[in-house]
Amino acid sequence: MMAIRAGLIVQTEFLRLVLRQLLRRQVGVEIVGEGAALADAARLAAANLLIVEQSLCPRALEVLALLGQHPAAQIILVGTGETLPPLAGVPAERIFFLPAGSAASAIDPSSLTERLDGLLRSHRAALPP
């Protein structure tokens, strides 16, 4: 089975730290790079999964640009809302939404862990053998 090569594009330092720790605990996941701005995504050509803070790309245009730079990658947008806002023109099978928090906390590591585990299982299943 092919490994997940994840790139983190997360501006919020605490959220990046939490995501980094969660990914390091996962079997078959390699972090290939990190950044705090969308421009950093260009350095992550080896990534087949980009985990991006939603506030960095609030419109479909930014997401489409990322998909263009990484034609084989899927994108997980991490945000504080409960659902992904509509992103016209963005292929639904390539983008997922990961709520970072809960009603009690903007960043809730325990619920984030559970949700991220589910998304990584889905991504792993979609990778070629």
In DSSP terms, counting alpha (H) and pi (I) runs of 4 or more, how many helices?
3
β-strand amount? 15-25%
Secondary-structure content class: alpha/beta
Order of helices and strands: EHEEHEEH
- The separation of the N and C termini measures 5 Å
CA gyration radius, whole angstroms: 13 Å
The side-by-side strand order for the widest beta sheet comes to: 2-1-3-4-5
Oligomer: single chain
The major β-sheet equals: 5 strands, parallel
What level of helicity do the residues show? Answer: 25-40%
CATH architecture: 3-Layer(aba) Sandwich
Number of domains: 1
Name of the CATH first level: Alpha Beta
Mean pLDDT, nearest integer? 84
Low-confidence stretches: none
Task: Output the CATH homologous superfamily.
Answer: Response regulator
Shape: globular
Number of strands: 5
Which secondary structure elements does this structure contain, and how are they paired or packed?
Layout: E1 4-9, H1 13-24, E2 29-35, E3 49-53, H2 60-69, E4 74-79, E5 95-99, H3 109-126
Parallel strand pairs: 1-2, 1-3, 3-4, 4-5
Would you mind describing this structure in some detail?
This protein has a single domain (4-126), classed as Response regulator (Rossmann fold). The mean pLDDT is 84. Helix 2 (60-69) links the parallel strand 3 (49-53) and strand 4 (74-79). It is 31% helix and 22% strand. With 129 residues, it is of the alpha/beta class. It comes from Elstera litoralis. This is Response regulatory domain-containing protein.
